[in-house]
Amino acid sequence: MHISEFQNLMREIYFHRDSKRGVKGTYDWLVDEVRELGEALKGDNRENLEEEFADVIAWVASLGNVVGVDLEKAALKKYDYKCPRCGQTPCKCTVYAFMSIRRSCPMPVSCQPYGFPPSRLTIFSSSQSRK
Ligand SMILES: [Zn+2]
So what CATH class is 3-78? Predict the structure, then answer.
């Protein structure tokens, strides 16, 4: 299934609700789902993790439908089989080129597997406590 097919599926199933809810309401749902994905990443429930990924994708598709953005077109326009910054596959950007993006990364997991220095990867500030 292509991204556009999934987005169309979400349109068929939910557009009547999504369009009434509007941009702000749909965006708020997406944010909640991303938060739930973050919680799932802290646990070890694989099924729950997969469900949360599915919810995030579904809400991104719904939001795209509400604002009229074709996700597949947009994704391939920016990520056209290569890194949009360095133009390479795999990406050859330096760690510090990434840090500017990753600094505000909401993921509740360390980016250490990607080789970033842990001291620069404090994802949550002390005011955003981790469970
Ligand atoms: Zn790159």
Answer: mainly alpha
